[in-house]
Amino acid sequence: MSKESGNNKSTAAGVDAPDKENTSAKLDDLERFKSDATGQALRTNQGVKVADDKNSLRAGARGPSLLEDFILREKITHFDHERIPERIVHARGVAAHGYFESYDNHAKLSKAGFLSEKGKQTPIFVRFSTVQGPRGSADTVRDVRGFAVKFYTDEGNFDLVGNNIPVFFIQDAIKFPDFVHAVKPEPHNEIPTGASAHDTFWDFVSLQSEATHAVIWAMSDRAIPRSLRTVQGFGVHTFRLINDEGMSKFVKFIWTPKQGVLSLVWDEAQKLAGKDPDFHRRDLGNAIESGDYPEWEFGVQIIDEADEHSFDFDILDPTKIIPEELVPITPLGKLVLNRNPDNFFAETEQVAFCPGHIVPGIDFSNDPLLQGRLFSYTDTQLSRLGGPNFHEIPINRPVCPFHNNQRDASHRTTINKGQAAYEPNSIDGGWPQETAPAAKDGGFESYHERIDAHKIRERSPSFSDHFSQPRMFYRSMSAPEQTHIADAYSFELGKVQRPYIRERVVNEILANIDLDLAGKVASHLGIKPPGKASVEVPEFEFQRSPALSQQTLLPDNVKGKKVAVLVFDGVADKSLKETLDLLARHGIHSMLLGPTSAPVVYADKKSIEVAGTIKGEPSIAFDAVLVPDGSDVVACVLGSGDAKHYLYEGYKHLKTIVLMGAAAGLAKELSLEADAGLMSGPSLSGLEQDFIAALKAHRTWSREQAADAIPA
Ligand code: HDE
Asked: Which of 8, 97, 157, 163 is catalytic?
């Protein structure tokens, strides 16, 4: 991101001229977005060449416009209809193309073609999203993230429409409109945007205790991811895989990022929402652009049919997880994102996912939430995408041929030929014809599950324990993670206006999860801490699942991390060069930030361009802050409120901070205590091991108490 300009010609002011090579490289990069109409005449949608696109047709230069101006009317009419309804939930999203690669032939587990060969690649499109906020809301709000994957398989599209948390807020689809009405901005004033910290949400979830497990995940660090590259993905429901002999096993689908499961800290998330509302989109787009392709391992937890009832919970209940310690994850393949969309609207906005899009080898379970979803997604596209032909939009089209007797309707683009749009027919030789189910390449056949039941409206009693898994989740967290959960409940409930809702959450929900958690939140809210749970929560043998803590999900390398390097006039060229080389060797992206946009002058009087300013590129957007050696570095930092704030803020957010050479003096001047993440020494190479270890750990949690003392 930085480029030395030591060889450039000096200007009259004595500072080297801006690096032209660098600027033109940036411009070349932007050329990628060149219109595909390059060299083409501007025409109307009817193909007529336009002679004047600047002036509408008028009766005289100062006279009224004429209705006959078909060019103006066509342009304005099209513009008037440019927007389509945004998604009711998951409106704010960002997407990328990539591929899925199977690790092996998994035919013994599923006959799905995309899992049938080692190394077989299937194109995919992934859309990440927040749930609550509208299309223009901020990326870093506290919320669940959608993780929707479209596999364009040889046998049709398979959509795995999941989230970054493994459980959902309700058990039955009939409660979904209620849940969404409660979490969305309140109807009288449309506040708050992108947040669940308000009365209606907490009113609903405290009355509907089945929400407790999903809510504690939403109050954990999982709901404020550092990057969309650092989220896990879950299919949530139990599905079935059907093998080449027609045998079924139950499975849970899980995506695990190679980049680690990492989060922001709450103060950072809130600040980013204002300073860079596009933080996550930008991060994903830039990573792919610079070749740091994010990667996830795709795995399944497999449950034999015979074991369906052998757990302390019901595997059809979407508010429960199957702890990995009970059923480990079997890896099936990997997902790599390697291409940004060319057009946000055509791809990211128009993509239509549906849990009902499955292929032979996969089938549904009877999870009542999943069953309701099978209806909702196609239905919503009718109004969002304007009719039943949305499968013809390029991003939604299967890559395999698809012929059937469905015809016409709005936005039909296929020109079907022939007279027989019905089955059976003899006019067209009976085509298109059915394909019998088979181990390979057969037609889709639903699993022959035997059902013998009464038609009733009844929740299975096996769905009735709402607290033992939230309790297990809380107990599985590290101490800092537990503190963050208590802080998040306290923050959210602090925004709730009605005292009786706050009290209900503490006494009837939190007390049943953990009395210590309830006590901490109660004391923040000024409520009497509850002395006992309000319901009897079963104490199962299995009480902790270490795999749930993010501390067990750290990355094994630091590739793609972003580091701010603060430079001032007098910076030692050797120190800087060594620093940048070391960072590049580890695949870490560095950004040189100066006090202004002007090039910074080295100790040897040559100059170097900066990529941004200390004020303009806040520490919250980086994983670490580095200050190289320099003759005046201490005076420069101490003389600048922005530079001091930079280091304080990085320290407060538990980031890795490296002070080199003379910059080491800053620790004492700013009263920042050395710890595993705050290091100083003559050069970065002398600290390489500690620096990389601190970056991998993502935060210096042991600093949390000291950091609390620093003003935000
Ligand atoms: Fe969705 N959900 N949902 N949902 N959902 C939608 O579909 C719905 C649920 C999820 O990037 C909508 O095309 C119902 C669970 C994602 O385009 C809508 C129920 C999970 C996305 C809809 C659920 C999800 C959606 C809105 C309860 C995690 C974004 C626009 C029965 C497993 C997909 C649209 C994208 C989107 C309905 C519950 C994930 C309204 C009725 C559980 C990731 O159809």
From this structure: 163
